[in-house]
Fold each of these.
Amino acid sequence: MNTAKARFLLVSVFIARGTSFLFSKTLMQSLSPMNILSARFLLAFAILALVFYKKLLNCDRRSLCGGIILGVLYTICMSFEMFGLRLIDSGVSSLIENMAIVLVPIFASILSRSLPKRKTMFCALMAIAGVGFLSLTQNESVNGGLGIVLTILAAVTYAVCIMMTEKVSKNAEPLTIGIIQLGVMGILSFFSVLLIGDLEVPQTSQQWCMLLILVLLCSCFGFAFQPLGQKYISSEEAAVLTVINPFTASVMGIMVADESMTVYKSIGYILVLAALVLYNMKPGRTRAS
């Protein structure tokens, strides 16, 4: 796979992942967050394990370790996302979480003990200001402030996930990593459900339909194939491409879920999306970081 195909694959992955916010929020009206995560990822793992069983049989140590590491990290990230999403609008949740785009180069600069470029810092400050306006729109919701905090934590852990995905995918089989990652996420989520003691399954055809969309589109494709795309491009470029994720979630939230668009929310949307687009704009061959 060349770089252009890897970019196209990741854009498709992030569009698929963007649809998950609306379906997950709708499902949480009747199922708990961890029930949804456990069913979603166990079913996705079972499907992919059947289709790509030869890859699992030939799994090497690096792929196994990489899948376990990503599975643990993404379980933490998805837990923050789901509990935050339950309290705030789906479009707002996606926008905040995808601040990971500007967090990745900042974290990379910290690890390399160098200062982030001025453009990165400007975009980060713009995104933070946008989150501030979005936070004002959630004050009317019960525990809306808590939802914002949980989603910010999801953004931080998502940035770590993006960076770690690049690291573990370079010298291992990426699709195998993605499949193992889903299995680990499903098992950890299932154990948390047993620990809490609220095990339940979807009861209606509508619930099963939304769950299957999450399984097939958002998990089997959206999660499992991200390591494959990131094998051929850097974590920073992958972070830039995630701009399509909040755009997809925001449009679906407004058009499908009838989420309101207030003045403060409009300003927040503009600031965050502008920050993501500005960061994506690279003059000539200069690469921002």
Note: The radius of gyration is 18 Å.
Amino acid sequence: MKKFLVIALAALMIFGLVACGGNSKTPTEPSSENTSDLAYVQEKGALVVGITDFNPMDYRGENGEWIGFDADLATAFAKSLGVEVEFIEIEWDNKILELNGKTIDCVWNGMTLTDEVTSAMECSNAYCNNTQVVVLPANIAKDYPTVESLKDLVFAVEAGSAGEAEVTKLSYQATPVKDQATALMEVAAGTSDAAVIDALMAGAMVGEGTGYDKLVYTFSLNEKDGEQYGVGFRKGSDLAAKLNEFLKQSYEDGSMMAFAETYGVQASIIAQ
């Protein structure tokens, strides 16, 4: 019996070695990580775009669909790739994690091309100019004519945004919130003294004839240097170059400017 067990164990060991050796020579299928982002998006049939509620770039239309300059441009880009577009609201401060985790395929939401963004993402060419402006209740705006006069105020800012960076640079008190729309709500409700948001959003949402007619935007915190918007993809993604081609073509054929005129941002468009 013992002799039989020894022989059986020996046979099993030989079989195991042969099996292992056979597996080591079997070629592995390429993983999705080894394919291009363009191929990945086209294979699944959708370009998933990370956004926040940001009028006039990405916001809900009357029927609940996402519209805006960026939304319309992203939809047209997806169509040029032969795929559908899907918009997902994200926490702006988590945009890089969402991108690298493949929850989304790009960040296309009036995103400022900061050093943090360009070092962590494969970014498109800049397509739009912007600055960060101060938003205050209209009845007190005249009391704060300079940057220095703002030092004792509490600012609502979108977490991870260029607005937060500008307030932090000044060492002023900032309360990070979900998005720029929430920052405006904080000021309107009186839970924050002021907000710093994108000039393009302020122009669309603040002042007479808007939903925030008791608020005004005053001066820019970075007018001298300004900032530019771009679209971010995963580092090394071939979709960035593909988008650059699309932006150039859209600018040349006039479709980009047509979208811009629809949403009142034509003055900010950068020639491609």
Note: The CA atoms of residues 156 and 164 lie 8 Å apart.
